[in-house]
Specification:
about 180 residues; alpha+beta; 6-stranded antiparallel sheet
Length: about 180
């Protein structure tokens, strides 16, 4: 089965790729749910929930009643994901949970109807503080200095090697020209 032809794990109908603004999802025509890639999730769901989902999915095992992957037909894992309105991991008490089906190998998430909407939307990242900007500038300066120093070292080493290779030729030439 190819990525262009995923099927609904509930009814088996071919999923339809839809585009809503910047969100790309595969939708069941019978309204059973939607699917998205993990990378698409990182653009639309909060980082802490997605990181938790990924950790849970990688360590879970499919159960006997596991749904099949829309992409491969193999069993998915079912994980219960706690969520909150804050992006910081562990920063607040979970406001709820949602049980999602994940194809960890293909990094594909299945949301039953209403589950995607239950999760809080991705919050914009805060602008860096002046201290963070100063640290980035310090790293950039050190990195730039290291590149320049490495370049000088390499140039000096290459020049020394070229001189060393030519010295015997110069010595032989001077010996016979006297």
């Amino acid at each position: 089965m190819s990525l262009a032809e995923p099927n609904c794990p509930t009814c088996g109908a071919p999923l339809t790729l839809t585009h809503s603004g910047e969100l790309d999802t595969w939708v069941c025509p019978q309204h059973h749910g939607v699917a998205m890639t993990m990378s698409e999730g990182y653009r639309h769901l909060q980082d802490d929930e997605l990181e938790s989902l990924w950790q849970l999915a990688r360590t879970a095992s499919p159960t006997v009643e596991a749904r099949t992957s829309p992409l491969t037909g193999r069993p998915m894992v079912s994980v219960t994901l706690p969520y909150d309105s804050d992006e910081a991991p562990g920063a607040s008490t979970p406001e709820g949970t949602v049980t999602l089906d994940v194809d960890a190998d293909e990094q594909f998430i299945w949301f039953d109807a209403g589950e995607f909407e239950a999760l809080p939307a991705d919050l914009p990242n805060a602008e860096p503080s002046p201290e963070e900007l100063a640290e980035v500038e310090s790293i950039r300066a050190r990195y730039g200095e290291a590149i320049v120093a490495d370049s000088h070292d390499r140039t000096s080493h290459e020049l020394a090697e070229r001189i060393q290779r030519r010295l015997p030729k110069l010595f032989r030439a001077n010996r016979f020209s006297s």
